[in-house]
């Protein structure tokens, strides 16, 4: 018996709802960016530069993947 057969499928309702909204209206992406930026500003006001360090640390794999994607032949 394989491992995938024993585990139930887990679906995250938040991500599927966002995907449905983006499929209906592309402008939802801009609303989500404003919300994320607001949360970042509030976090910096609360915890300071530590938050910016954590955000930069999380962005490293994403930027690495982006650079590979744009340079792929």
Descriptive notes:
By secondary structure, this protein is mainly alpha-helical. The mean pLDDT is 84. The protein is 81% helix and 0% strand. The protein has one domain (3-71).
Q: What's the short story on this structure?
A:
This protein is mainly α and 73 residues long. The chain has one domain (3-71). It has four helices and no strands.
Count of distinct strands: 0
Low-confidence residue ranges: none
Number of helices: 4
Give me the strand/helix succession.
Answer: HHHH
Question: Which class of secondary structure composition applies to the elements?
Answer: mainly alpha
Shape descriptor reads extended
On the 0 to 100 scale, the average pLDDT is 84
Give Rg in angstroms: 18 Å
Helix content: over 70%
Q: How many distinct folded domains?
A: 1
Bin the strand percentage. Answer: under 5%
End-to-end distance = 40 Å
**Biggest sheet character:** none
Supply database-style keywords.
single chain, 73 residues, mainly alpha, 4 helices, 81% helix
List the helices and strands and how they pair.
Layout: H1 3-6, H2 13-24, H3 28-47, H4 49-71
